[in-house]
Amino acid sequence: MSHGHDHSHDHGHSHGHDHGPGGHSHVPSVDSADARKRVAFAALLTFAFMTAEVIGGLISGSLALLADAAHMLTDAGSLALAWVGFRLAARPADSKRSFGFARFKVLAAFVNGLALIVLAVWIIWEAFHRLAEPQPILGGVLLAVAIGGLLVNIIAFWILHGGDQEDLNMRGAVWHVAGDLLGSVAAIVAAILILATGWTPIDPILSALVALIIAVGGVRLTRETAHILIEGVPSGLDPDTIKADLEAHLENAESVLHIHAWALTEQKPLVTLEVVAREGACLDTLRLAVKERMQDQFGVSHATVEVRKSVK
Asked: What is the tens place of the pLDDT at every residue in 154-169?
């Protein structure tokens, strides 16, 4: 059920607000509940194994394990933050927050992106120190703990990857666990080479390579979420394209003005615009036609449309 608010005045203005199915309801969806469960389980799994990695890293002297343990600590915190994001996003709107807490998921993803970047910088910095001052590493302990970490991360990745990958909050969680998984692979490779050749510099080298991959994911996630937080124009909603499309396909639209497009979350674009009607056109019919075109052509279910008569 969709509802709108129409205010027509003697001077010829018609305003409409379409809030899509269910209006501004923020009742937890099946997808949201599923995402919360997936993130919570992955967080508990990650935190539990992190303790084993810290012990293994200290005993073996491996930077790869300690870096991965630090990564898993930030992952556990980031997954917990993602869980809070899903929980808050499910809360209903109120008089002070007409959209509820939906955007908190984007904020959580933004913080997670920054955490990935900071973590990558720390690992690379530590790797340079280890290369300058090599330390002995117990390859056997490193290998055993790294294999355990790989298994845990594969399970966590599988759990999270089954969720909605269009959700930036979920993608942030997946990137963290993917970084952990790569870290475990790097630690296994380092352990095998150390056991076979005794060449310990491979440990910080592989750690730094994994950190670079983590940084790429962090930069991408931070850039996408920052674009939403500063209310940048969503992909596929270029104002010039919208203007040209509406003027070409709606014969009663003389011109389309003041188009603003942004997004509440990555899955909920918002648009406001003004349409000047041709002489004799029904303002309300034109308003509804604009809304229908925005939904069908651009996938925008929440459009605020003002229609006014042409002044000549």
From this structure: 998 888 877 666 677 7
